[in-house]
Write a structure and sequence with these properties.
Length: 456
């Protein structure tokens, strides 16, 4: 009963379908307990601390906040408890008619599941068991008891210092948050750059911001060993002759699907390195068993899990399968946020050819809203192929709110000029979309200037 399971249960119950959910731990899954909710609560506290320091930018007197991270962590836990008592509460689902079955589940056959000591028969089974952080094969790392996204929010307070292994969204978000709360933070990235899936120029701009805030980011690091001092107060990551020491080591280098102990292979469900192998309809190798979310190994985001869960339920019970491709945008919730939909420039050129691709750019230095917010360090990039929008990338405050319009445009195969006819509110960050669309429209209009009637 994480992001996928809850959506599937609620959707199916509204259709009059008898639904049972097996949950071995807590309702809410990773999103509530180890992912989106605690991390965004932490980011909010960190943003407030940063705003106090940076108040001079708004004509006020800046000051150093008095940070007690125990209070920050207590706030995180209070928010989790509030959600667990309301939206993510087992009783709410029971009121919808869902049977909530506590205990470990195991697939006995294509249509039977054992939960605890009892077997249950069903027409369809949805696997929504998620994933967990995977530790890289670094000597001594497991013995150093590193923090992960699962462990860091079980603490009572932030560590005094941390060395973080991995340069993906989880690390980058938490690194900025911890640094803003006074934690000495170092990020070690194996590859040549952080946020490798993002538009490189925007990732570089964000990296410069992180470094300016005091985060040490080291790329090209092949960590080969971890060690703990005799008293256990300091932990060190080694890479050849180089080393970095802190109170804690944090690791976010990938995730592993939760497929163990479920009886999947014995029942005939085929597995791959990323989890349950599913077809375009999200059906496994057994026609009665579907999978959604992280365990299906496609897009490891909360919003993707929820979408896939609803899609799987539709495919189970409605005629006409929904099996086409679907676009999943995402956002790294740093300050500024970095949002992504569709193809990067290099991906678009590889797929459509150089001649067909054009990138439209607007720096936030030209955004009136960004200027008023003292937040003009950012950029909007829209990638087109023969005029049609195929990619969009936004580095800006609330970029996650802005990207939805562009994701819709990509999904509906709209041209950039189509967005020129959508009136956007002034002053907003999203107005930059209309401004770029207008630029494309003006350019197209100039090609037909000869049609303009001259005045007598």
């Amino acid at each position: 009963m994480g992001s996928a399971g809850m959506v599937a249960a609620e959707f199916a119950s509204t259709l009059g379908i008898r639904v049972a959910c097996a949950e071995r731990a807590r309702v809410g899954g990773d999103c509530l307990w180890t992912g989106c909710v605690p991390s965004k609560a932490l980011l909010a506290s960190a943003r407030a601390a940063h705003a106090m320091r940076a108040a001079d930018a708004y004509g006020l007197t800046g000051l150093d906040p008095d940070i007690d991270s125990r209070r920050v962590w207590a706030r995180i836990h209070a928010i989790q408890d509030e959600i667990a008592a309301t939206d993510d509460n087992a009783d709410r689902f029971r009121a919808l008619g869902v049977d909530v079955l506590p205990g470990d589940a195991r697939l006995l056959s294509p249509t039977a599941v054992r939960v605890g000591e009892h077997a249950h028969a069903a027409r369809f089974v949805l696997l929504a068991t998620g994933s967990r952080p995977a530790l890289p094969p670094i000597d001594g790392l497991a013995a150093a008891s590193p923090l992960t996204s699962e462990r860091i929010f079980t603490l009572a307070q932030a560590p005094a210092s941390v060395v973080m292994i991995g340069g993906g969204p989880v690390t980058v978000e938490l690194a900025q948050a911890l640094a803003r709360l006074g934690v000495r933070t170092t990020v070690l990235q194996r590859g040549p750059r952080v946020l490798a899936r993002e538009e490189p120029a925007l990732a570089e701009r964000l990296l410069a911001r992180l470094r300016a805030e005091g985060i040490e980011v080291v790329t090209g690091v092949e960590a080969d060993r971890a060690s703990v001092d005799a008293g256990g107060a300091a932990k060190t990551v080694h890479a050849g002759e180089r080393s970095w020491t802190a109170q804690e080591i944090f690791v976010a280098t990938g995730r592993a699907p939760n497929v163990e102990g479920l009886g999947l292979e014995q029942a005939g469900v085929k597995l791959g390195p990323r989890g349950v192998i599913v077809d375009r309809a999200l059906r496994s190798s057994l026609k009665s068993v579907y999978a959604a979310g992280d365990v299906a190994g496609r897009h490891r985001f909360t919003h993707a899990a929820g979408y896939e869960a609803a899609r799987a339920v539709r495919n189970m019970f409605f005629p006409g399968r929904s099996g086409g491709p679907y676009l999943v945008p995402w956002c790294t919730f740093t300050d500024p946020e970095l949002a992504h939909a569709g193809l990067t420039e290099s991906e678009a050129r590889a797929q459509h050819g150089d001649a067909a691709v054009r990138v439209w750019r607007q720096d936030l230095a030209h955004s009136d809203r960004a200027r008023t917010e003292s937040a003009s360090d950012g950029e909007l990039r829209i990638v087109t192929a023969k005029g049609r929008i195929v990619g969009a990338h936004v580095l800006a405050p609330s970029a996650g709110e802005v990207i939805g319009e562009l994701a819709l445009a990509i999904d509906r195969r709209l041209k950039l000029t189509d967005l020129a006819n959508v009136v956007h509110v002034y002053p907003t960050i999203a107005l930059a979309i209309q401004q770029l669309a207008a630029e494309a429209s003006y350019e197209a209009a100039r090609r037909f200037g000869w049609l303009v009637r001259s005045r007598a």
